[in-house]
Amino acid sequence: MNKITTLLKRTLMTVLFLLAVSATYTSISGVQAEELTEWWDRYDHPFYSAFYGADAGTIEDSAIRETNLSLKSLKRHEAEVTSISSSYAESDSLTLEEAIDWTQYPSTVVTATGYTAGVESTGKSPSHPSYGITYSGVKVKRDLYSTVAADLSVFPLGTILFIPGYGYGVVADKGGAIKGNKVDLYYETVKDVYEEWGKKKVEVYIVKKGRGKLTEEELALLNEDETMQVFRQQYLKDTKS
Description:
Shape: elongated
Largest sheet: 6 strands, mixed, barrel
Helix content: 40-55%
Number of domains: 2
Number of strands: 6
CATH superfamily of the largest domain: RlpA-like domain
CATH class of the largest domain: Mainly Beta
Order of helices and strands: HHHHHEHEEEEHEHH
Strand order of the largest sheet: 1-5-2-4-3-6
Strand content: 15-25%
């Protein structure tokens, strides 16, 4: 009787120990219980050793199985962050440059120059009736989607470009000196132009070709897209710092 009691106690302690180890492993690795069950059913089944051989349970095999489980967990995590969404973008460590595969879009190299709505760039003072109004009729704007000027024969009004280091630029304006692959990037002040951009050659990505028009409503919808707000907040935080 004592032997049976001792055996039952040892069995119970072993089961409790295995449950504790399972809970700890699941908490640390993120591997769910059903995955451990699947692993147990496959590799600890009585017929497994008979089918695969007596050495199927070696340390090396165990390590491989654990690695496969970790990779499975990692792949599941990667799948959760492949699209831009509010749930994915909870991590503010990713920038737009990092979050999207920009190679899926056609690209071209342009000479990009910063400009303002002021006299130094447009010859217009704040008292001018068309101050800050672009050729499309939209007011100049620096945001996640900013208004930019381009050669409309190259980039029609409404074209959406992604400019690394600047963000999205929506073609809303033109200029007499803007010919060919040239783009003027809007900034609110001359100080911003000099400190944040100046003039440089950069590879831009053509996200969407315009239809020759742009409205305030269309620009607002782009900037208020719920799935993009975390990136917008990153941008606003960076510009205010």
